[in-house]
Structures are given as structure tokens and as C-alpha cells.
Design a protein that fits this description.
Chain lengths: ~180, ~350
């Protein structure tokens, strides 16, 4: 769990008595900043190449699940280039997963991200793995969920880029839900 | 008009693991002079709520929606300059770790007197004198000599006292205390809490006291909000909460209060941990840990309800409210626990009734 007081998401100001002090943390932050070399590589690599450099893969341990059994899946993204790459995303939501095209298995929108681009950064050769779980439920309203009936379902995951470039940065897999 | 009115506050962090909804549609009110407690386990969203009131959350965090009305004015609509003047003049904050607030390179006295100069327009000599008075007032011995000490020359408890002095120097209407005693040992904890309480009364400030310990709330607060996974699950006047908790999570928190004078450490703790706020459990967020969870709890999320009538609780209500399907009539078996209150101590002994349900 991220701790707000240890993070960069906190306004700090030494000149303000009631804003956290900067001094206390400046050393640790400096160490973090010095390894961030994205700025340069960003400008040197064409967008298209940057996107081709990244691969996305979705997989589940099995292809068949009993009705009601949670379906774990893992989303792996890899930067095949020997230098850092930053993908510019359509919003601060960097990537999403879907079930049958429904974002996070919800039929109601869950987030209203601000209208600004996000930056999804990969180190040289970096492989990121995210483990998620589909509970075999669809959210049908703010407060209600329904179970998925037996049948086939497509679990997808993709980086949040414009549709025209989306295909390369998206993957999906099919699971079958069988009655118990 | 309430001193502080938080309406539908939602705060999210955009991370590569997903969107963390740290605070989710939160509503509450704090009246003038009131001591309002916010309690919940680590990760519940208590600090993010408090820091949002001070407008101290930055990217990748975002206050996505809501209103924070302080004396009727929306803090979220204010310019950077306006909010800076609210911080300290109107709302002051004490952090868990006094070192968050204190700058190690200035003396304690300089920092308090700087706050005073800044907020009250005092000259150097006046500010110094007022600072020494305040340091003395918060229980720092030999305040005049200690004025020139650096924070590291103070013990944790003394540092926290100095921060309290700094907070009160500007006569704020609201004092937010985020786990002010968690880093201190128990004997000092009681002293500091007394201090906060007494000074808030003298200075006529309302207090929003954040803690993970219901025992601390009992000692200080009038009203309390229990938070779980970014949402309030129970709100009540403190006595009602202690004698008649209505949410299973609150009951769990109560049974994990260490009992004064009891050698047993904790009676029991709630099994499991706070969920990942990127992907909350479906339905009632507490269902994976709730001993009373039923099928319905995985499909329906209860709003805050009046436990007597089952009607949805109004955001402005100061009455007892709890977010559990027990009060919508959706549970088949219902909740089943007994609260046993021992002696004068508001700390209670909670028993879960085993076996089949009776009604
Ligand atoms: N900088 C951050 N980035 C991502 N998530 C964060 C950050 N800071 C806090 N969070 C998340 O916000 C949630 C609420 O945290 P917090 O308000 O600190 O909880 P509490 O004070 O109740 O322990 C937690 O799930 C935490 O992981
Ligand atoms: S709604 Fe269900 S899971 Fe949630 S607290 Fe009530 S009984 Fe427990
Ligand atoms: Mg906290």
C-alpha cells in the first residue's frame, strides 16, 4: 500500500507552517529523480516505434472455470527496446482490462478521468506484470452486480491509447464458464 | 450552517496498477466547536480525506468531485493564494509524525514564531513573546530556553506539543489531527490527547481527530465516522456507537481495542486485511471479511441507512447511520452479536453469538 506521507502526491512547502516540510524528504526524492531519464529518449523515438516496442499479453492459468469461481488473470507488458520508452495515453488512466468489452466488467462508467494525457513509462527492457481477478460478476449499476451466466467470455487488456493505434497495445483471451 | 460540510468527496490516485479510489463519495459535517472522530484501519482513506481538506493532495492524486464547504465557502473553488491563507488561519493540521511539520534546520521557537508573524502580523519581539507563552502553555518546560532548540533536541512528545502550539497560535476554527499520538508511547498519548482537548475548548476550535483506535475516539470525541475502503460505514454520536454499534466492521474494531488494565493484548482482531482500493470487492466492500456476509452482500452495496427505519440517511443528518444490508431487509439471517459493557469504561466486550440465528 502506498503511504500518502511518503509519496510525491503531497504538497510540500517549507515556507508554509501547515504544509509538510520539504527538507525532511529532499534527499530521498533526489535519489528517485536522478534515475528518471525519460525526457531525452521521448523526443528521440518516433511515436509509432515507441508503440511497437511495447507488447501486451493477457493470460489465465486455465481456460475453463466453474460458475461463480473467480477467474485470475495476469497482464504482462514488455518494452523490447534497450532504452526507456514512455507511451502517451488518452487520459491519466494508463491501461484497462475488460470482459466482453466492458471496462473492469462494469456496465456503468466507473471513472471520469480528467481530459488530459497520461504518461506510461517503461524502463529499458522492463517487464511489468499486473495480477487481476474477475469475480464472474458484472456491475450493472452504481450499487448492483449480477453473476455471469455460463458461456464464453473474452478478457482483454490494453494500454489506453487512441483506437487507431490500440490494436498493437492490446491482447485478449477467452475463458469458458461451465455450470457446476 | 455547519463549520465544515463535506459533500460527495471523491479522491483518486492514477497509478500504473490502476485507479486507486482512496475516498469515495464521502459526506460529513463538523459543527463549530465539535470534536469529530474519524476511525478505521490503515488504508481506509483517513489521511487522504484530511489532506484533501487542506488541498494538499497533488498528482497523481486528484480530488475528482465534491464540495468542501468551510463556513459556507467551497475550498475546492479557491485560488492557491486563498487556500494558503485558509491553511493555518482557519484550518490547522497536526500530523502523525511531528517531523512532517517541523523543519529540521530552524529552531522550534523560530518556526512557531514565524507562523505567528505570518498569520497575526506581529513584529519579531511580539511573536517571540507569544511563542514562549504558547510553548509554556502546551507543557514545554523552560520554554524560554527551549525556544532556541532544534527539533531533534526535542523528544517526540515535545515535538508534537510544539506543533500543537504552532497550530493553535493562529486561532483556527478547525484543528485536524491525523493520528497525532500513534508515534508516541501510551503515557504520553493520554497527555497529548488531554492537551488537544483542553486547548481546543479554550480556543473554541472544532477538532477532526483521525485515529485507528476507537479507544482514543472514546476519550475525546462527540461524534464519530467509521471509514472502510474509502467510504463511511457508520456514523453516530460516540455513545451510541459504543453502546449500540450497528455495523459489523465497527463491532470488529471494538473487539480489537486493547483493554485498559487487561493483560490480554487484544480480544480478537478482524481477520483479513483492507482490500486493494483499485479493485474493491463487489457489493458490500466489507463482505470478504464480514462474519455475517451472505449472497446478497456480494451483489448489492448498501448506502448509509437509518438502522431503525431502513431509510437512506441524509448527508446532513447527525443521527446514527450504518451501511449494512441488515437495514434494507436484504439479509436472510441477519446480524447476531452482543455488546457487553463493563463498568464505567466505554470499552466494551463483544461476543459473536455462535450457531444458528434466532430470528
Ligand atoms: N501517492 C499515492 N499513490 C497511490 N495511492 C495512494 C497514495 N497515497 C495514498 N494512496 C492510497 O490511498 C488509500 C488511502 O490512504 P490513506 O488516506 O493514507 O489511509 P489511512 O490514513 O486511512 O491509513 C490507500 O489505499 C493508499 O494506498
Ligand atoms: S452488508 Fe453484508 S457483508 Fe456488509 S456488513 Fe452487512 S452483513 Fe456484512
Ligand atoms: Mg493515515
Amino acid at each position: 500500500m502506498r503511504r500518502i506521507y511518503d509519496s510525491e502526491a503531497l504538497h510540500r512547502d517549507d515556507d508554509e507552517a501547515f504544509a509538510p516540510s520539504e527538507e525532511e524528504r529532499s534527499v530521498r526524492l533526489q535519489a528517485l529523480r536522478s534515475i528518471d531519464s525519460t525526457a531525452l529518449s521521448d523526443r528521440l523515438i518516433p511515436t509509432g516505434l515507441r508503440r511497437r516496442a511495447i507488447s501486451v499479453d493477457v493470460s489465465t492459468p486455465r481456460t475453463e472455470y466453474s460458475e461463480g469461481e473467480p477467474v485470475p488473470f495476469s497482464v504482462t507488458m514488455k518494452n523490447s527496446l534497450p532504452f526507456p520508452v514512455t507511451v502517451s495515453t488518452a487520459s491519466p488512466i494508463l491501461w484497462t482490462w475488460t470482459v466482453d468489452g466492458e471496462r473492469e466488467a462494469s456496465r456503468v462508467p466507473l471513472h471520469e478521468p480528467p481530459a488530459e494525457a497520461g504518461r506510461f513509462r517503461f524502463d529499458r527492457g522492463e517487464r511489468k506484470e499486473f495480477r487481476k481477478r474477475w469475480e464472474q460478476m458484472f456491475r450493472v449499476s452504481e450499487t448492483e452486480w449480477e453473476s455471469a451466466a455460463p458461456g464464453e467470455y473474452t478478457i482483454g487488456a490494453g494500454i489506453n491509447v487512441e483506437a487507431s493505434d490500440g490494436a498493437a497495445l492490446y491482447d485478449e483471451t477467452v475463458v469458458r464458464v461451465v455450470p457446476e | 450552517m455547519a463549520l465544515l460540510e463535506v459533500n460527495d468527496l471523491t479522491v483518486k490516485f492514477y497509478t500504473q496498477d490502476g485507479v486507486v479510489t482512496a475516498v469515495n463519495g464521502l459526506d460529513y459535517r463538523v459543527e463549530r466547536g465539535e470534536k469529530f472522530g474519524v476511525v478505521g484501519e490503515s488504508g481506509a482513506g483517513k489521511s487522504v480525506t484530511a489532506l484533501s481538506l487542506m488541498r494538499l493532495i497533488e498528482s497523481p492524486g486528484r480530488i475528482e468531485s465534491g464540495e468542501i464547504l468551510f463556513k459556507g465557502e467551497d475550498l475546492l473553488e479557491m485560488s492557491e493564494e486563498e487556500i494558503r491563507s485558509v491553511r493555518g488561519n482557519e484550518i490547522a493540521m497536526i500530523f502523525q509524525d511531528a517531523q512532517t511539520a517541523l523543519n529540521p534546520v530552524y529552531t522550534v521557537g523560530e518556526q512557531v514564531s514565524e507562523a505567528i508573524r505570518h498569520h497575526l502580523d506581529y513584529d519579531d519581539a511580539e511573536a517571540r513573546e507569544r511563542t514562549i507563552q504558547l510553548l509554556d502553555r502546551v507543557g514545554i518546560p523552560e520554554a524560554e530556553t527551549r525556544y532556541s532548540d532544534y527539533p531533534h533536541q526535542f523528544s517526540g512528545g515535545m515535538q508534537q506539543r510544539a506543533v500543537i502550539a504552532m497550530a493553535l497560535s493562529c486561532d483556527p476554527g478547525l484543528l485536524i489531527c491525523d493520528e497525532p499520538t500513534t508515534a508516541l508511547d501510551v503515557t504520553i498519548e493520554a497527555e497529548i490527547l488531554d492537551q488537544i482537548e483542553e486547548l481546543a475548548d479554550d480556543f473554541d476550535a472544532a477538532v477532526q481527530l483521525i485515529t485507528h483506535d476507537l479507544g482514543v475516539i472514546a476519550q475525546v470525541c462527540d461524534r464519530v465516522m467509521v471509514m472502510y475502503a474509502g467510504k463511511p460505514v457508520e456514523k453516530a454520536p460516540v455513545e451510541d456507537l459504543y453502546y449500540d454499534p450497528k455495523h459489523p466492521y465497527t463491532v470488529g474494531l471494538m473487539s480489537s481495542i486493547p483493554r485498559v488494565g487487561d493483560s490480554r493484548e487484544r480480544l480478537q482482531t478482524i481477520p483479513g486485511t483492507m482490500p486493494d482500493l483499485v479493485e474493491l470487492p463487489t457489493g458490500c466492500s466489507f463482505h470478504p471479511r464480514c462474519p455475517y456476509a451472505e449472497e446478497a452482500c456480494t451483489r448489492k452495496e448498501p448506502p448509509l441507512l437509518d438502522p431503525e427505519t431502513g431509510a437512506e440517511a441524509a448527508a446532513s443528518s447527525a443521527e446514527h447511520a450504518a451501511a449494512c444490508l441488515e437495514y434494507t431487509g436484504d439479509l436472510r439471517d441477519g446480524l447476531d452479536y452482543e455488546i457487553e459493557v463493563r463498568g464505567q469504561d466505554p470499552r466494551t466486550d463483544v461476543r459473536q453469538v455462535e450457531g444458528d440465528q434466532d430470528d
